[in-house]
TrEMBL record:
Protein name as catalogued: Metallo-beta-lactamase superfamily protein
Domain Metallo-beta-lactamase: 10-76
InterPro entries tied to this protein: Competence_DNA_uptake (IPR052159), Metallo-B-lactamas (IPR001279), RibonucZ/Hydroxyglut_hydro (IPR036866)
Gene3D superfamilies for this protein: Ribonuclease Z/Hydroxyacylglutathione hydrolase-like
Provenance organism: Acinetobacter boissieri
Pfam assignment, any one: Lactamase_B
Highest taxon in the source lineage: Bacteria
Length: 396
């Protein structure tokens, strides 16, 4: 058996996947998500003499890593954890993508700039899990990379100097199964680094980019601030004016989302497709290769990319994959996710099995979908505020 809990993480993601033999935490939402919901479950696991075999931070974005920042700041070190033992953390940082600094003088020339970026800290965001301003920067001045390194955690299966990519880690053995890495590619991480370097040089950075504590922190802090530069405007949801996903789909262009660690989690014969905020085109490329090798594209559950945004679920992707269970994580407050066009495209496809869409909040789109009649007459149900454990039986 396998159990999944999708936490209420505002407009973010936080998932805990558990079997009798392993436990995996994927993203942590905001700091308040961890304090209000995740922490107690980890304490309960620890009290049962269990541990987290793997923590995956899919990409550097406040709505995914804020809760992990809070977790590690409270958990302390790997050898003396205050909440729960963690065996391994996946997190692609500057340390994972570049070589260590070889010329300290180059860093010294840029120290003032890097220090100012560091001092600005994390974005001061309005939490989507309570009504108060959640000042992550004031509460947690350290980056995730610093907390992992200083805590002595096993990082990217080693010391954090290698990255998690589909080329470098096509599959990874875990207790009771394996994880297949679908994204990012090495080129995706290079694109992210290039975009960040371009922004950094706009501020006056001189010289080449290498890894070091201060510049590693600047990388993470800047990416969090860069992530919100694009804002989607709300669309009218009147059925008389709505277009189909096929008509409105436009690929995501965020290099940060493209850097997402997307995976297939295979445990006890159960296959869960966890898409983070990945680009649809990258996922199609990886899955098509698996399909050509004979792997089924029907999964036990699919976590839809980027909170149901129509920029991350293409008609071509939906032609390739399906599942009786879908997870949609968003409260819809900041980015108007999920998009109703995405949800309709999921349920409109002909199917030999009923589909259940689990939403961790009731949103405008999820509520409308409950009253929707599919064109194919395929059966589906929508469960809102779905934050309890969901069990899957395997050994297929």
């Amino acid at each position: 058996m396998l159990r999944i809990k999708m936490y209420q993480a505002g407009n973010g993601d936080a998932f805990l996947i558990c079997t009798d033999t392993t436990n995996i935490l994927i993203d942590g939402g905001y700091a308040s998500s961890f304090i209000q919901y995740i922490k107690d479950d980890l304490i309960e696991l620890n009290s049962a003499n269990k541990f987290l075999e793997l923590v995956i931070t899919t990409h550097i974005d406040s709505d995914h890593i804020g809760g992990i920042l809070k977790f590690l700041s409270l958990n302390g070190t790997s050898t003396q954890p205050s909440i729960i033992s963690v065996s391994n953390i996946w997190h692609n940082s500057l340390r994972s993508i570049t070589m260590p600094i070889a010329e300290p003088l180059e860093l010294e020339k840029n120290r003032s700039l890097l220090q100012s970026i560091h001092d600005r800290g994390h974005p001061k965001i309005q939490s989507d899990t309570d009504s108060n301003a959640e000042k992550i920067g004031a509460q947690q001045g350290s980056t995730l990379a610093t907390l992992i390194h200083n805590g002595g955690y096993r990082w990217n299966n080693g010391d954090g100097t290698t990255s998690i990519t589909k080329e470098g880690l096509e599959s990874f053995a875990i207790t009771g199964g394996m994880i297949r890495v679908l994204s990012p590619s090495q080129d995706s991480l290079k694109s992210l680094l290039s975009e960040w370097e371009k922004q950094l040089k706009k501020y006056g950075f001189k010289g080449s980019i290498s890894s070091g504590e201060l510049i590693d922190d600047a990388f993470e802090f800047m990416l969090e601030h860069m992530n919100d530069y694009q804002r989607k405007t709300p669309k009218p949801i009147s059925a008389t004016t709505r277009k189909s996903l096929h008509e409105i789909y436009k690929p995501d262009d965020s290099p940060t989302n493209k850097s997402s660690i997307a995976t297939i989690i295979e445990l006890n014969g159960i296959r869960i497709l966890m898409l983070a905020d990945a680009w649809a085109e990258d996922i199609i490329f990886s899955l098509q290769k698996l399909k050509d090798e004979g792997h089924s594209m029907i999964f036990d559950a699919i976590k839809i990319s980027h909170h149901g945004s129509y920029h991350n679920t293409s008609p071509e992707l939906l032609d390739l994959i399906d599942s009786p269970v879908y997870f949609i994580s968003s409260n819809g407050n900041r980015h108007y996710h999920p998009d109703i066009e995405t949800l309709i495209a999921i349920v409109d496809r002909p199917s030999t099995f009923p589909r259940t869409l689990y939403c961790n909040y009731a949103t405008v789109a999820s509520t409308e979908l409950k009253n929707y009649q599919t064109k194919s007459e395929a059966k589906f149900s929508v469960i809102e505020n779905a934050c309890d454990w969901i069990a899957f039986t395997g050994n297929k």
